[in-house]
Records
---
Amino acid sequence: MAKKTGEASTSDEREGEMAVLEPSLKLSKTNYRVWSMSMEVYLDSHDLWQTIVRENVSKKKDRLVLLAIISVVPKDLLMVLDAKKTAKEN
């Protein structure tokens, strides 16, 4: 099926390749509850929420979740996240 110019691919159209889009809501000092709900929905929509709630997940999924988390936290918190070994610890 041909695509129109400028039309975005979905993960299904990429034959199993997951498109990693950055979450849209950045964490701030006042929005943790809304941010955490947004992150849960974002991760669940990419089949990554189980990385947070389960043990023994693949390293690739763990790194994708860690990438998503790092992309939405302020720079001053990155040093705190640096000490964590897995996304679940964050």
---
Amino acid sequence: MFKATPNPPKTDSFSATLDAKKFREAADRALDHYLKPNSHHLHAPKDRAMQMFTVSPKANPQAITIQTYETFSSVNILLLDLAESLEDKPRHLAMAIYQLSEMGLLLVEKTLESEPAVTGV
């Protein structure tokens, strides 16, 4: 049987025209984007594009605990002030958040109690 069109030219495999590894990585990223939309949030902090705050790996653990206590104390005051200006459901929500932060404050206090006292140098 005679063909009216010639056979296509012989070419190397697919990997010759495109880098197969790069193509596979791009395809995986695209599939993950659509099939696992929240998976990019689960990566390590170094992968986050908007990393604004960091804790120094050399930071003194006791200093971190003290700073955590101060942060919880500030949050508690802000929430109480906010709750005073709200009514009904929003007020209950603010008070629930306040109670959670108060629980965090109590946990940090317990941690500080178990720490040895710091002496001045």
---
Amino acid sequence: MLSSCTTVLYLWNHVRRMQVTPNSSFSSPRLQSQWRVTITGIIQALLYLYCSLWFILSYLLTLFKPDIDEEGHILFTVICLFSFGTNINMGFGQTLFRQRGADLWNKAVQIPQLCGLNRA
């Protein structure tokens, strides 16, 4: 968690410095890319915090009321949500994934028109 927060703070300060300098060698797309990395890092840190807090809460609950999640279904669900969120977060951080997702969305939107279902 400390590593994630440190990385996010470094990137945040770096991007702010790049915005302030008028003769920056960074182009606008590069600055946007750095913001995207910063946001991805923040989301990943929040996912990790959510999962870590649940582990602590789960441990404390089993100390005081051991029969709450005997088979670990809630804990496994939290782990699965963390893994799924991490995959989605890292996937959307990739330009190619976002472009392919946008292409698929545009094709899906055109399906009713191609089938003649969207008559105006």
---
Amino acid sequence: MKFFRKMAKVEQNNWRKGAILGFYTYMLLLFINYVSSLIFESEPLTSGVIFWTGLLVAFGYEFILNFNSRIKAKN
């Protein structure tokens, strides 16, 4: 029994782009948090905020790319 359908190449590429952007978002937020803790001795972002922001960016960007590719395929 299959729970998930096989992803198309376009969807795989869109997920890869979303995951890369999510990773860079993690790195940027961690850098901001670390530098702020060095300079001001307090962390402005919690680990939960960093975690959920990275996930939302990755899945959100993938969703936008998939949505745009579906619109282009219909036209």
